[in-house]
RNA sequence: CGGGGCGUAGCGCAGCCUGGUAGCGCACCUGCCUUGGGCGCAGGGGGUCGUUGGUUCAAAUCCGACCGCCCCGACCA
């Protein structure tokens, strides 16, 4: 296509509201414009790039036997009430009423709708397995949209749903998706990791997230460089570092001592001269309205996800200061498990077997020494500890690393929640009614674009992978007034088209500097510069990433770039 | 929902403190010039100063309410 005819509104300056790299560049390069908080218009370049991404996703989904549907974005309240999620989703769901005051909502996801279709039509085990998917807009009224296309309120998602007769069938569907996701993200040119994930409020047994490491990410993943263990921080396990000092021996009884003004673990450690690992950290949480005491080693952090999981709680929060005083008779900073009644006490596994530790005395400015779990109080032991960087891998002992990541895909086994709950039944070979087992698998389409921008940006702009760039190559005549240059540029352009490439001809009447800057900014992976060297019959072929430049003959330029593109697509660059 | 910041031309900003009816750079339009990294010269168009109430002879400027957007945190199938 000819640049002079296109709408590519590049900005010379950074828009003030954009902070993260991808947001800034997508705006500057004329890919997107904001309409409201977390709502964006995708202009020409973004649409081309997203279509490329969608094309890859579609191919790979079809390759595993997926069947594409297009489902309503507008749902009646009933289907969500039936699954019980009308209430669960709270303010994250966009809700509205139709003219008859009937409750409706915009779909955040499509388990309900898919299940409704399935229960109306699937009758026999002979019809299973099924893989149904859709690529379309989903709506979530995010409490805080942010980071450009990273967290938005309307976004494109590929979502698939599988129906199988048994767990073994689900395993197959799950593995197919796992493999398909690996192919999709590799083909899109991303460096990603698949990590074990928490399956969240959806329930279900097994779950993996596909993550791209990036400082712009919002999730933490834990990785072992030695054995390849990788998990979302919410779910990750590790061996904690050893306690920094031995516990005092003997069958000692708790003994109160005065700790004026010492509230934090660090302050108490300094005051007593004992390491933080000798202390018990007491956190008061409220789980579904009930107070619960959580105990950890002094230097450890509570994983709220693990904590909620251990209790099977839907909603947890730290107790308010007034509540703490009411229940413990002391303020946070002097709390401990000894003498606590009327609430569950959950202790992290790292406290099991420890003796004679320091804990709060439930009396302001006082602590207890010689507190021993199981003797001085009876806790329930659970894994509550959030993994920290440097912990030892439980598999191989390697040193775990923590990285910030962007979640681009999530697959999980749903189990029977929707089929059971919404009355989806088929007859099995014995003629008995059974509920099929389901899986659900999502990909954030815009996040693939954002991640690619983040991953390959430099000071000049973006440098998109060939497979998802809006054009393969931009042909830049340096001087429009030079008829020979324009002619050669057009010939190369036509040559590229003949080879099946998507070329962009920069025929704008602009100074060369402007053309180069814009080409770099919008991230087209290759540029053919037609300039002075044309006198010798040569043009330049520039790779956007790394700015590698080579000279080729005019007549060979199209073939040369085609070859590079071909191999880049093979290697996923 | 808690904390912070911002709203003046398409974009980036100044003006506000100390009220007197709006300015700069980029972009845009016209002409000339120039053509290997956001060129030069000349001329020009474009703004209900987020909305609304109040104070005042007079409000972009002072006071109040509201709305919107960004950032940090909480939250996040």
3D architecture notes:
This protein is an alpha+beta fold. The protein folds into three domains: 28-236 and 402-453, Bira Bifunctional Protein, Domain 2 (BirA Bifunctional Protein, domain 2); 255-382, YbaK protein, CATH 3.90.960; 466-571, Rossmann fold, CATH 3.40.50. The chain has 14 helices and 31 strands. Strands 3, 7, 8, 9, 10, 11, 12, 23 and 26 form a nine-stranded mixed sheet that branches. The chain has a five-stranded mixed sheet with strand order 17-14-15-18-21. It has a five-stranded mixed sheet with strand order 28-27-29-30-31, with helices on both faces. α1 (21-28) crosses α11 and α2 (44-63) runs antiparallel to α6 (167-187). The longest helix is centred in the N-terminal third of the chain and has 21 residues, at 167-187. It starts with 20 loop residues before the first helix and ends with a helix. The model has no long low-confidence stretch (mean pLDDT 93). It binds one RNA strand of 77 nucleotides through α13.
Short description:
The protein is of the alpha+beta class. The chain is globular and about 95 Å long.
List the helices and strands and how they pair.
Blueprint: H1 21-28, E1 32-36, E2 39-42, H2 44-63, E3 67-69, E4 74-76, H3 77-83, H4 85-88, E5 95-97, E6 103-106, H5 111-121, E7 130-139, E8 154-164, H6 167-187, E9 193-196, E10 207-213, E11 219-223, E12 230-232, E13 255-258, H7 265-272, E14 280-287, E15 290-297, E16 301-302, H8 304-311, E17 316-318, H9 321-328, E18 344-348, E19 357-360, E20 366-371, E21 380-382, E22 385-386, E23 401-415, H10 417-421, E24 426-427, E25 433-434, E26 437-444, H11 445-456, E27 473-477, H12 483-498, E28 503-505, H13 512-522, E29 526-530, E30 538-543, E31 549-553, H14 557-571
Parallel strand pairs: 3-7, 15-18, 18-21, 27-28, 27-29
Antiparallel strand pairs: 1-2, 4-6, 5-6, 7-8, 8-26, 9-10, 10-23, 11-12, 11-23, 13-20, 14-15, 14-17, 16-22, 19-20, 23-26, 24-25, 29-30, 30-31
This protein binds one RNA strand of 77 nucleotides through helix 13.
């Amino acid at each position: 296509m000819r640049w002079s005819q296109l709408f590519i509104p590049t900005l010379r300056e950074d828009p003030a509201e954009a902070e993260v790299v991808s947001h800034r560049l997508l705006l500057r390069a004329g890919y997107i414009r904001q309409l409201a908080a977390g709502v964006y218009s995708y202009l020409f370049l973004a649409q081309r790039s997203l279509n490329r991404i969608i094309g890859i996703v579609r191919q790979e989904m079809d390759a595993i036997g997926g069947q594409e549907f297009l489902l309503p974005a507008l749902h009646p309240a009933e289907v969500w009430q039936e699954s019980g999620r009308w209430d669960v989703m709270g303010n994250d769901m966009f809700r509205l009423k139709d003219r008859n005051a009937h409750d409706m909502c915009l779909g955040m996801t499509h388990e309900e709708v898919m299940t409704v279709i399935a229960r109306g039509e699937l009758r026999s085990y002979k019809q299973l397995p099924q893989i149904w998917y859709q690529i379309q807009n989903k709506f979530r009224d995010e409490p805080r949209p942010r980071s450009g296309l990273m967290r938005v309120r309307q976004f494109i998602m590929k979502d698939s749903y599988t129906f199988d007769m048994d767990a073994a069938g689900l395993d197959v569907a799950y593995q197919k998706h796992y493999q398909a996701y690996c192919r999709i993200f590799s083909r899109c040119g991303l460096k990603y990791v698949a990590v074990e994930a928490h399956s969240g409020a959806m329930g279900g047994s097994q779950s993996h997230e596909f993550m791209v490491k990036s400082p712009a990410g919002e999730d933490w993943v834990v990785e072992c460089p030695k054995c390849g263990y990788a998990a979302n921080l919410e779910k990750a396990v590790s061996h904690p570092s050893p306690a920094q000092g031995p516990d005092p021996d003997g069958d000692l009884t708790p003994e109160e001592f005065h700790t004026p003004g010492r509230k934090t673990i660090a302050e108490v450690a300094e005051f007593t001269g004992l390491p933080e690992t000798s202390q018990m950290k007491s956190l008061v949480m409220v789980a579904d309205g009930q107070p619960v005491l959580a105990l950890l080693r002094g230097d450890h952090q509570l994983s709220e996800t693990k904590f909620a999981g251990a209790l099977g709680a839907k909603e947890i929060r730290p107790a308010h200061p007034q509540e703490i005083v009411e229940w413990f008779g002391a303020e946070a900073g002097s709390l401990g498990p000894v003498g606590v009644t009327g609430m569950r006490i959950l202790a992290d596994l790292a406290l099991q077997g420890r003796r004679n530790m320091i804990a709060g005395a439930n009396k302001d400015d006082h602590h207890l020494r010689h507190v021993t779990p199981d003797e001085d109080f009876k806790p329930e032991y659970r894994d509550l500890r959030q993994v920290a960087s440097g912990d030892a891998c439980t598999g191989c002992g390697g040193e775990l690393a923590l990285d910030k990541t962007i979640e681009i895909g999530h697959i999980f086994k749903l189990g029977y929640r929707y089929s059971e709950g919404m009355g989806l039944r088929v007859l099995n070979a014995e003629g008995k009614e059974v509920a099929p087992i389901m899986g659900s698998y999502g990909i954030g389409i815009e996040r693939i674009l954002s991640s690619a921008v983040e991953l390959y940006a430099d000071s000049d702009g973006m440098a998109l992978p060939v497979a998802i760039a809006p054009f393969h190559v931009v042909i830049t005549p340096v001087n429009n007034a030079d008829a020979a240059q324009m002619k050669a540029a057009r010939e190369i352009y036509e040559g590229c088209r003949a080879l099946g490439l998507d070329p962009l001809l920069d025929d704008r009447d602009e100074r060369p500097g402007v053309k180069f800057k814009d080409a770099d900014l919008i991230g087209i992976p290759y540029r053919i510069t037609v300039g002075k060297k044309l006198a010798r019959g040569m043009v330049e072929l520039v790779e956007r990433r790394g700015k590698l430049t080579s000279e080729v003959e005019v007549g060979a330029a199209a073939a040369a770039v085609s070859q590079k593109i071909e191999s880049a697509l093979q290697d996923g660059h």
